[in-house]
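ugh ok so i messed up the first submission bc i forgot one of the chains. this is the corrected input, ALL of the components this time, i swear. 338 residues overall. if the numbers dont match what u have on ur side tell me asap before i send this to the collaborators (the ones from the other lab, u know who)
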Amino acid sequence: MTTEIVESAPTALIDRFGRRITYLRVSVTDRCDFRCVYCMKPDQRFTPRDQLLSLEETAQVARAFVGLGVCKIRLTGGEPLVRRNVLWLMREVASLPGLDELVITTNGSRLAELAEQVRAAGVRRINISLDSLRPERFRRITRKGDLAPVLRGIDAALAAGFERIKLNVVILRHRNHDEIPDLVRFAVNKGINISFIEEMPVGQIGEHDRAEVFYSSDSIRADLQSHFELVPTTETTGGPARYYRIPGTETRVGFISPHSHNFCGDCNRVRVTAEGQLLPCLGQEQVLDLRRILRGHPGDEAELGRIIRDAMQSKPKGHEFGPQANRTLARHMNVTGG
Ligand code: SAM
Ligand code: SF4
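and heres the new structure output, hopefully the right one now
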């Protein structure tokens, strides 16, 4: 670690619009054991392994960002728990001085085996994706997934003592929109949180017309009103979600609405793909190739820090998603690191 990076840490990553970047999301692989209809094509092609960042390179990137004031890192993918030796990476990242929180997003398929080890590696919080409680429907949405191991994985995560476990649900009209109250009831019974995410136009998926299946956060909230009392809260994770409490329960319900509510004004995050592309904004094509810098200047953390800092100046004011935008990004979500 260079002195230059450490000394400038508290104010290092500030973009042109005065937003301070404190949160990094890293995709550790583009591979996955599921092929969710909104995320990938059925015959999705994956990046050759030598083009992925090694775990050591990923740890180096994480160290550089933490040296520049990032205090929260999420490991995601693809499916992070299918990457070999990912527990090593978790331990490395969790032990970085200055990092407050290491969290992951997973589809839960391997959690029943790995939850305890992931917790022991230093991961504090975990988001688990769950779009249906019906096995056949779960299979149809994930194309390859089985529901039972995921449900066992949720219980294993509860037993392993993660803080504030959260379910992530993508609602698609006529696919799973009739399960909204059941999914919330499931979260309430488990004493965990749940967030509903509007489908984003990330990657050509071919499977459905995104406009046809769009189901807005406002519709989801309206569906829930007759089943639960939702009390708005001012709680924020510095991210795009709006939160509600259900009185008398432990459960917080979040809505992530890239279409219906633009959330860019408070954006505090950037992403790094499994290939080492730095994405200042999820909704833009613009990238910076960190792999080239890592491999062209091995061990030069000062150069890496300088380039990351400069890259923040190209973070755009906002994404251009929206029901009328009619625009799909070329990158798939498994590459972007959702
Ligand atoms: N495989 C892990 C999982 O599914 O949780 C982590 C990676 S996945 C890309 C992260 C999150 O992105 C998941 O909750 C998934 O539902 C969500 N996601 C994937 N494609 C999406 C899309 N087109 N729009 C909105 N959310 C999407
Ligand atoms: Fe895999 Fe997650 Fe994408 Fe589903 S959403 S295909 S589980 S990466």
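quick check: The pocket of S-adenosylmethionine (ligand 1) is lined by residues 32, 38-39, 76-77, 79, 105-107, 129, 168, 170, 197, 199-200, 202, 333-334, 338 (CB under 6 Å). that seems consistent at least. The chain has one domain: 2-336.
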